[in-house]
Design brief:
This protein is mostly beta strands. Helix 1 packs across helix 2. The longest helix is centred in the first third of the chain and has 15 residues.
């Protein structure tokens, strides 16, 4: 039977159906990319031989043909640096593992896979890339002076795709797109040693139009962290138009993070539908170097901040604005929203600006925070994200405040449908559910909570130097004593609207507020 397409072509142009079928097949065949099997270029895949020369020859052959697929069949391929060229796909078949050499003499530049000023490059196929990370650390996990990091680095490339591969044991950073435009990372599994030094998962750096989805990442540092380091350009280009979705993340540090390197701006960024487990810091913004952070959204994220291998303070949500050095410019952080968060933690949420440079226009909506234990907070200090930072005083460090949610130095804060549950067994220490200091234009709606300690001395909500606030449609949970405590705050500047305070002894009272600054 003649295919419908062929019949229509015959009727229109009068040519035989077999001619059109042949022509269509030839065109489709011509459109198929050429495949270059690395075995044909001398690769052995025995895990012992240096297969880099053969793989490089295959890459050059594909590039010389105008593009093609460099194919690694099942086997173990030991290699140093591979430089990808435009229109080249590196295809690792299931059962194929590309091993990073254990000798730095085989790397130049210091990356296993590297590309610069290339376009339309792909890494795919279902195989594995193993960086041999332990070869570049001391037994106590201190990094050796030289190591191949980042393992995969792309500089000023366009249309980079990494999909359906597994990456294991990176010696340092894993994937680093630097000043790239159009990056798709999908279905990638990254597992690094949780004690491996600086073994970040994915670090989009001054890159735009970045899409990361359906990944599993276990990292000895941050899982997915956006940066503007200025390594190639000053001023640093922005990191913008970024979507991260449907990822599962386990981290020794932060799961989803912006900063600390922030020489350029961050804008139009969406994190959604992720699961975060066994991490110290869930969602974080570290603003230190003058770049602006704006139009950032975190939505539909489940966070469990119980680290798997070491005890430390836990921060399910953390935002910090400070100057890295005395002469550093000040960043601006505004229009940041968090919605539909489920949190299990022993820690606290800490969001802080600077007295002369407050954070602006933040929203927390539909947040459920379950406190499963209590940390010692009296001498706590905030995480800095880097050892190269100036010392700061208490006016910039509210980490010792005893509260589940801490907000300091903000202008324009909305807390809608936020609930705090104290679920730790045994006697609870003194804790506010919510604490705000030096906050202006605060709106609390549909909040529910109580102080941690039964018959505690601290109010459910503590205001210290708060101006222009409204609390509406909120309720004190059973066991509450004082709902709102005030310090250096004018009661006439606070509006109460339609709150359910049946269980409290006092709705508003001067005094039962933690004193952070005299």
């Amino acid at each position: 039977m003649t295919p419908p397409v062929s019949r229509s072509l015959t009727a229109r142009f009068g040519a035989p159906a077999r001619f059109w079928a042949f022509l269509i097949g030839a065109v489709c065949l011509a459109a198929q990319p050429s495949w270059f099997n690395v075995r044909d270029f001398g690769a052995r895949g025995d895990g012992q031989s240096n297969d880099a020369p053969a793989i490089r020859k295959a890459i050059e052959a594909a590039a010389g043909a105008g593009g093609g697929v460099v194919y690694l069949p099942p086997g173990n391929y030991m290699s140093g640096t591979l430089v990808l060229r435009s229109h080249v796909t590196l295809h690792l078949a299931p059962g194929a593992t590309l091993w990073g050499s254990r000798s730095m003499d085989d790397y130049g530049p210091p990356h296993l896979i590297y590309a610069r000023d290339a376009e339309n490059i792909v890494i795919e196929g279902g195989g594995v890339i193993n960086g041999n990370g332990e070869a570049f650390w001391e037994p106590d996990f201190k990094p050796r002076p030289r190591r191949p990091s980042p393992l995969l680095r792309f500089e000023r490339c366009r249309r980079v795709r990494i999909r359906d591969i597994a990456i294991r044991n990176a010696p340092g950073w894993t994937i680093h797109p630097l000043e790239c435009d159009g990056v798709w990372i999908q279905g990638v599994s990254i597992v690094n040693h949780l004690r491996g030094p600086n073994t970040d998962g994915i670090d989009p750096d001054s890159s735009r139009n970045v899409f990361i989805s359906d990944c599993f990442i276990e990292a000895g540092d941050d899982c997915i962290v956006l940066k503007t380091t200025g390594q190639l350009s000053r001023p640093a280009p922005p990191c913008e138009n970024v979507i991260v979705t449907r990822c599962t993340l386990v981290s020794d540090d932060a799961a989803l993070k912006l900063g600390t390197e922030s020489l350029g701006d961050f804008r139009h960024i969406l994190f959604s539908d992720c699961v975060i487990r066994g991490t110290r810091v869930g969602l974080a913004i570290y603003a230190k170097d003058g770049g602006a952070f704006e139009a950032v959204r975190f939505s539909r994220i489940s966070i469990d901040t119980h680290p798997t291998h070491r005890e430390s303070l836990q921060w399910p949500v953390y935002i910090d604005l400070e100057k890295r050095y005395e002469d550093s410019p000040v960043s601006r952080v505004r229009d940041i929203q968090f919605s539909d968060l489920t949190i299990y933690t022993r820690g606290r949420i800490l969001v802080g600006g600077m007295p002369d440079h407050p954070l602006e226009d933040l929203v927390f909506r539909n947040v459920r925070m379950r406190i499963t234990g209590f940390e010692r907070v009296e001498t706590a200090s905030k995480p800095r994200g880097s050892s190269r930072v100036r010392p700061v005083g208490r006016e910039l460090d509210y980490a010792s405040v005893p509260a589940a949610l801490i907000f300091a130095n903000l202008r324009g804060l909305k807390l809608h449908d936020v609930e705090v549950f104290w679920e730790a067994p045994g006697d609870a220490p003194e804790r506010h559910a919510l604490y705000a200091a030096r906050v202006e234009d605060l709106e609390i709606a549909s909040f529910a909570g109580r102080q941690a300690a039964a018959e505690g001395k601290l109010a459910v909500i503590g205001f210290d130097e708060v101006r222009r606030a409204v609390i509406r449609d909120s309720r004190a949970q059973p066991g509450s004593v004082v709902f709102l405590g005030l310090r250096k705050t004018d009661p006439n500047d606070i509006r109460f609207v339609n709150n359910e305070l049946t269980f409290v002894r006092d709705a508003v009272l001067e005094g039962p507020v933690h004193v952070h600054l005299p």
